[in-house]
Design brief:
The structure holds three protein chains of three kinds.
Chain A (H helix, E strand, L loop, with lengths): L1 H6 L2 H42 L6 H4 L12 H32 L4 H13 L4 H13 L10 H6 L3 E2 L3 E6 L2 E5 L5 H25 L3 H9 L4 H29 L3 H6 L19 H10 L3 H33 L4
Helix pairs in contact in A: 2-13, 4-8, 4-10, 4-12, 6-8, 8-10, 9-10, 10-13, 12-13
Chain B lengths: L1 H4 L2 H4 L15 H43 L6 H6 L18 H32 L2 H16 L2 H27 L10 H25 L3 H9 L4 H12 L1 H17 L2 H6 L17 H10 L7 H30 L6
Helix pairs in contact in B: 3-14, 5-8, 5-11, 6-8, 7-8, 8-11, 9-10, 11-14, 13-14
Chain C lengths: L7 H9 L4 E12 L2 E12 L3 E5 L6 H8 L9 E9 L2 E2 L7 H7 E4 L10 H11 L6 H11 L3 H4 L12 H13 L5 E5 L7 H14 L4 E5 L3 H7 L2 E7 L9 E8 H6 L4 H7 L5
Parallel strand pairs in C: 3-8, 3-9, 6-7, 7-8
Antiparallel strand pairs in C: 1-2, 1-4, 4-5, 9-10
The chains are: A mainly alpha, B mainly alpha, C alpha/beta.
Amino acid sequence: MAGQQLINGNFERFLRRKRLIGRIFWVLLLISTLAGLIMLAALLIDLALEGASWLTPTLFTNYHSRHPEQAGMKSAIVGSLIILALTALFSFPLGVGAAVYLEEYAPKNRLTEFININISNLGGVPSVVYGMLGLTVFSRGFGLFKPNSWLVQALNLPVDPRNGLIFSVLGLEMRLPLGNSLLTGGLAMTLLILPTVIMASREAIRAVPNSIREAAFGLGATRWQVVSRQVLPAAFPGILTGMILALSRAMGEAAPLIILGAFTYVPFLPRTIWDQFTVMPIQIYNWITLPQPEYRVHLSGAGILVLVAVLLSMNALAIYLRNRFEKRW
Amino acid sequence: MAGLSRLLPASRAVSSPDQKGVFSTGLSWRLRRIYEQIIKASLFLCGLLSVLTTIGIIVSLFGEAIGFFLRPEVDLYHFLTSTMWRPLGRPVSPDNFGIMPLVNGTLMVAVLSGAIAVPLGLLSAIFLSEYAPERLRSVLKPVLEILAGVPSVVYGYFAISFITPIIRNLADWVNSIAGTAIQVDFFNALSASIVMGVMILPLVSSISEDAMRSVPQALREGAYALGATKLEVALRVVVPAALSGILAGFILAFSRAAGETMIVAVAAGSTPRVTLNPLSSIQTMTGFIVQVSFGDTPMGSINSQSIYAVGATLFIMTFIMNVISNYIMRRFREVYE
Amino acid sequence: MVTPTQNATTIEAAQNTTDGVVLSTQGLSVYYGNKLALRDISLDIYRNQITAIIGPSGCGKSTLLRCYNRMNDLIPSARVEGRVLFEGTDIYTPGVDAVEVRRRIGMVFQKPNPFPKSIYDNVAFGPRINGIKGNMDDIVENALRQAALWDEVKDKLHESGLALSGGQQQRLCIARALAVEPEVILMDEPASALDPIATLKIEELMQELKQRYSIIIVTHNMQQAARVSDMTAFISIDRENPDARIGVLVEYGLTQQIFTNPINKETEDYVSGRFG
């Protein structure tokens, strides 16, 4: 009988074979998971070998130069930091604002759903597209401020052929279009990371239990009071962590800024947000494309070490904050 | 009845709709209301920004792309069908502006990197979701996240300084023992794809893992109770149940790979061609866009306008892939609930 | 159609112990979307009394309670018909700000929900957002004393409210509600998540508080209602249409009467434990 057969020898063998396959599979899985880790390790070793010796103070004090021994990435480092600050400055209110609206205020109607779909789609758009968006809208302003555009003719605007329309607001100089300036770079990067910031903020806001909101409403708080005094403070650690991670991604981006016209040879430090600039990833890319091995292999390796160090510290900060302030409801 | 009449003060309520009786109608209340409305409007505008961004993308990409197609040197038919992409080629003819080589390059890299990321990502997701003890998982997951956080320029560097020499040496070794004449260009698609596969591996892994973790435990227990092994439960119960999420993840990763720029700009080359040979130098859509922007092309020239046409094509491709991915995720998610 | 039994004797008796009606619903019906949840509730709440709302679970007691301070406004599909009069004015009149209603009609919830802030900030939150002037330290101490919590927390006002025990947290929530000086306090099963000793403390507190405030308590614990309240309203499912689960007011009167000599047969069945 089948039942009898199952109890003696055959089933044992059957089971043993299954166990063997299972164990092989386990090893296979571990290897796959570790494959990435191994690659990462190889990368780091490679970097250390090729780049570490070139990690000198010159890297930080000099601009790019045709003589490799004198080349540095001072302007790129400063440019990266300013772009980082601008991006943070713009994306925080816009991203958190949108998240608050969607989680606390938005009615369940078609418009809200449409906004949701938009945000989710924008998260999947290639970064080069954001570069081109920035180029057309911010940097060139659709060509609306060229001397022979219809707008300039119609309104008789005093445009300078190189710098566009210059005017001042409250003593600060404004320019339209924004040109290939730090401001344009910051705006384009803001749009790039905005979907990520919004999604992370929404999760943090959603994690705040509803009972807190109810209690606050019950005491006679208006919706904004509930949000600003209870929900946002409680969600803040999560929001902050999300922002830092999004910003560290922005720091590593080169493509959108290249398209915007960020230069590679910037032998000066920018003084205003209207100045031209470069960032670390672009400088590194530039070095990689140069024929001499000093640039192609060593300097770029050193530059990468600096970039990776900055990113690692940002990520570490984010993880530390997340662990320290994680609220257990 | 005397008793009831004493209740009447309550029922003789102030009931006209304009009177608010015991509640205040003061200015401070009205100001508070206006303040709340302003706040709500500002927050709404923040939300609307996403819609404006999408409109901005469509207008800028397609607006300039239309400008490109209106040029006499170019036409849409050749754009879609010609197998040559030589914007600076002489004599100038619509045949020089065929998108196929760039699409070929993009797709080849995306498929090859998918071939690496998909199996490895799925297997590591299975491992993390079904096998790994919690402590191991809490160590491995952050590591995978780190992989995803490495800038693509760094991956490009890694490709060109580490992977490419390995492939070339491998080819030489195979040539020497097998007498073949395999040729590996310095810039090639394979090198870029390997590295890109590693970069998008965490994406595949995390999406697949989320999909698998959301499979109810009851399904697993039912299978275990029938005498299934862990392997069988993982492969025959969990993965099929999570399949929609996993598939959506694959497509999303594919779309990510298609849109990735710096790795291919560094390691894949700048020779657009239609080929199936991953060992040859190619150019992707994103690589071309960066190449043009990196140089100093004057605004309005045919070269600089062509990037919009290429960008529009790329946008359409990734958009369609994202839509399909979302559709799969949404449509089939309910199946086992 | 069930008419609520409020006979004249009951009302006269109630009348003699109080000086007026503070809250009154007239023909109140609540819909969630298209579903009718409560029908035609007409009920007078008397000042400085504890009114209990009892009934089997799921028949709309909490819904009714939440109408009194317009908390149902927060649910998009909820719709209210009829009137709720507070000191003679309909709180649902267009133009009346729900925010002010909630300041004057406070609420304590079933599960204690202190804010993730210090004890001091928990109590101070209400006065701060309502712009109440005065010495905040005094306001906080006063509210905590009224909630019988001051002695236990006076040395740790700056510790987190979440660090207290369940019973203490609930008294903190009561103090928090008292700090804005409401006139009515709504309590939605305030002791159901607490142990018997903490429950007893809350019930004693209620007796103290009713001298200054009017209290409406929803409870599924009949013994509690019998111990604590002066008036009791019995809400149950409309017998004529049991599948629709529409809540109606079956009987309302002096607690003593409801529990010892109810007029309505259904009430008698419920309080003697035959169903519910």
